[in-house]
Structure formats: structure tokens, C-alpha cells
Amino acid sequence: MTVERVIKEAISSSLDKINLSGIDFDLDSGNSIQGHGDYATNVALVAFSQNKSYPEAKTPLELAEVIAKTLEKNFSGKETVDKIEVAPPGFINFYLSERFYKKLLVKVINKGDDFGRQIIGRGKTVVIDYSAPNIAKPFGVGHLRSTIIGQALYNIFAFLGYRAVGDNHLGDWGTQFGVLLHQIDQQKIDPKKLTMEDLEKLYVDFYQKLGQEPRLQEKARSYFKRLELGEQKLKNIWRDLVNLSLFEYQKVYSLLKVNIDFSLGESFYQDKMKAVLDEAKNKNLVIKSKGALIMPLEDSPVPAMLVKSDGATTYLLRDLATIKYRVERWNPELIIYEVGADHKLHFTQTFEAAEKLDYIKRERLVHVAHGMIRGRLGKLSTRGGRIIHLGKVLKEAIDRARQLSTQAGIAKDLPIKGQEKVARVVGIGAVKYNDLKQNPRTNIVFDWQKILTLEGNSGPYLQYTYARARRVLEKSGTDTNLTKIPEYQPKREELAITRLICYFEKVINESARTFSPNLIANLLYQLAQNYNTFYNQHQILTKNKEAKAFRLLLSKATAQVLKNGLGLLGIEAPEKM
Ligand code: ARG
User: N or C: which end of the chain has fewer CB within 10 A?
Assistant: First the structure.
């Protein structure tokens, strides 16, 4: 049982004793250095605001005193909490005991890679829809965010005991294929010989010609229509384009070490859209409008278009078929869409339509609408306005990590192969961390100077701290035997570290609840900062045996939490650096 649970249950039972059961209170992590306790609750304030009173208590502060008294009895003789105090206007603060903290460190070591793992999601499934690049277009930085955040959410939910199902909803169907099919067919190109760059050129060429020849649009549409009708020649070209793109994407995924469970893609729903249309018609949810089939909606500003006036199916219709399929196959508690904020309207419409069709309640569909990545000097695109290719960005990250290592003299004692591994782990980790340290909903800045640095809130800083703690343990030679509780009275700055470790489980829950991996990143950053402060102030391998034992225990637990937390973010922790 986590310490939060222990305290919350104690509060609930105290409330029962004074006949104030059923109050919905918060328990927040406090700041005991500033005298706010390790945890604090607003229960007395909430009780007052709900006009639930206790005869002798005239103010929230007095009520807090009454509750604190009953709590003290509850905790006396137990090891968890050793001080409870009341603070105006009516907070109750809890201070955890030294013994509790020491035992926590031992627990971290015993649990190892499983420290923080929970079972609250047991029996429940979440589907996570992420990455989803568009076939025949390069994997741009825009899909990088989706891939990185989506994978972190996947890891977090799985760690909490949910069955996580990752699905890469590839953009492998839709009118955009009309353009390429038109180009390839008209110019009699052998699709097997095409590269991704060629495809880009074909697009650019098409849109240039379109200026003089507006009828081209019409022609491209009819190509997609023929594809939807199943024309074999076009299907073969389409298949080649898909294979070519997947081959390219795979390079990016293997650099990122991302492996998504399913890649059903939009094309998977070709034969599943009709059922949705039939249901929509039977339920009288759709009307014809200018030849198109649309579903009027109440809560979205525009109706949902399911079929276009030329008979082509829409992206939205495929998303409805996807929801129906996912519900039937996995019966998920939640479907999480890690997709850019530019999809806001699309998902508002899709979710409302799915609810109207009775597939799933809207509350169970979540759009984590991530912001844009901007370059330090503005939009992240090449001079010609084309999107920057992710493969190139990642290669550059690795190169820069190599330079950083050389400058800082890192990894210089490792064999060449080891150095290369460090460069990859640090470079890729830096790019991922830059993204994950910030709330997904905000726009983020891509600034190499801040991404690949050993100072400040960066991936390399956390990895370096991890390697630093591991190095001390290795030097001490006692790495394996650290489960005894040392007789040592920890200093304030040492307790500050254990407190952060204590919050780890709670923060994982919070990050899942709010779909915000950045909460984990922030905790790790604080942990690393506190550990480095401690490291610079104290000699870990001191002559004082008990102090040394405690500090090694603290170092090992810190390293473990950094490793587990980075793991949730999809970032590797290098043993040596
Ligand atoms: N391929 C789409 C795009 O890049 C994103 C797909 C997101 N997922 C979904 N179920 N619609 O614009």
C-alpha cells in the first residue's frame, strides 16, 4: 500500500469517528523544508465549505485540530507518520518518519525495475492511437511528438497494470492517393523504382501544374475513386507506395526504439465503412446535402461528412469504423488519441458522431492534442517551406551527442563501440526528453543548444546523473549488499531526496490521469538536482560506516528511480557515460 493510501485511509477513519464521513478531500505532496509537511490535506476546509460541522469547532482551523487529534491516535506507535500539525487557515500537515523513509529506500532496491509498478489498471484496456504518419509523405517532426508522447503514455498505462494496446493509424488511404496515382499513371513511372524524395517531387509538380490546370484536381479525385472501387492496376501501385513508406518509417522507429503493437492503418477499414453507413442510415442520423452524405451534429460547429459528393469515403468515416472495430475487439475503457491540436475539430466531430451511433460514450474518447514543434527561430521547416525529415534530425542528434561527449570528456574510457552506444542513447534520449519535459498541449521549441546540454533540464543531464550514481556504487564495491537499514540520522538534503522518491508512485498515477508524462519528467529532474546537490556536498564513501551505508543506499535508490522513470519516458539510462 502506498503511503498516500495509508494517510488517506487514516483520515477517512478519523472522519468516521467524529461523524463527518464522506467528505471528498485532497492529499497533496507538501514541502516539508518550507514547513508544510511531506503531505497536506484540506479536509477541514472542505468540510466547512460543505457546511459539515463539528459542535466544538467554530473555524476550519479548530476543526483541523479535532481531526488532527484523532489522527494522532491513529498513527501513534506506527512507523509511517511521526508528526502531525495544523496550519492556518485549516490545513493538516503530515511529516513522515525517518524510519519510514529509510525503509522506503530498501523497498526501492528490493523492487528494482518494478518499483512504482501498480495494479490499478488490472482488467482494463486502453487503446493508444499514436504516430500515424501519412504514407507517401516523409515522416516529419510533427509525427515525432505523437510517437514520443504516445509511446510514453503506452508505457505508463502498462506500468499501472492496464492492458495497453498501441495502434499506429497509418494514413494509408484517402484522396491524397489520387494525386500520386494520377502522377505515376500519367507519367508511366515504374512505382518500384520510386524513392520518398521522388514522391515529394511528384506532389510538388502536381500542385505547380494545378495552378494552370484546375481540372487536375478532378482527375486526381477520380483516381482515388477508382482505387476505392478496387481497380487492380491502381491497387498494385498503392501497395508499392505503402511498402516503400513503411520501409522508410521503420528506420525512424528503430532509431527511436519504438515498436507499436498494431499498424492497422486507414486502409484496413475499406470494407468496414459500409456497416457504419448502414447503421447511420438506419438510425436516421444522416442526410444528403449537395450530393454528400453528412451527419448533423449538435455540439460541433459543422456537421460530419461521411461520404463526399463524388462518392469517396472520408477520413472521418474511417475513424468511425475504427472506433467500432476497437470497441468490438478490445472493449477499451479509454481510447487515447495522441494527435496534434490541428485535429481538434475532427475529433470533436468524430467523438460526437461515435456517441450518436452508440459505439461508445464520449467521455471514453480522449484527444491529447499536442502543440507544435517550433524551431528556435520560428516554424521548423526547410527554406523551401518543406517539412524537415525526422531521420535527418535524429542523425544530427546522435552527431551532436558525440561532439558533446568529446568536449566534456564523457565516455572517453569506453571502447569505440561503447562510445557509439552512448552517443545514440544520449542523442535520441535528448530529443525525446525535450518533448516529454513539457506539457503535451503546449507548443515546444526545438533548440539544439538546450536539448543537448549537460546542464539544466535536459535528457543528457538526467542520464549523466544516473551514470554518476552508478559509478559511485561500482567504486564502493558493495553494490549488491544494500538492504540493511543503516543507523544514521539523515541530513535535510538527504531527506529531500527520499521525499521525491516517495512521490514517484503518486506522480505516475497523476501523469496517467492527466495524460501528462511531463509530470514524471519534472520529478526526475528535481530528483537529479537534489542528488547532485547532495553529491557535491557530501563524501559518499566516507569513513563513517553508517553514513556511508546510508548514502550508498540513497544513491542506489536514486539511480533506480531515475532508471524506472526514464524507462517510462522511453529513454535509456546508460550504465556508463
Ligand atoms: N494520419 C493523420 C495525420 O497525420 C493522423 C491520424 C490520427 N489518428 C486517427 N485515428 N485519426 O494527420
Answer: N
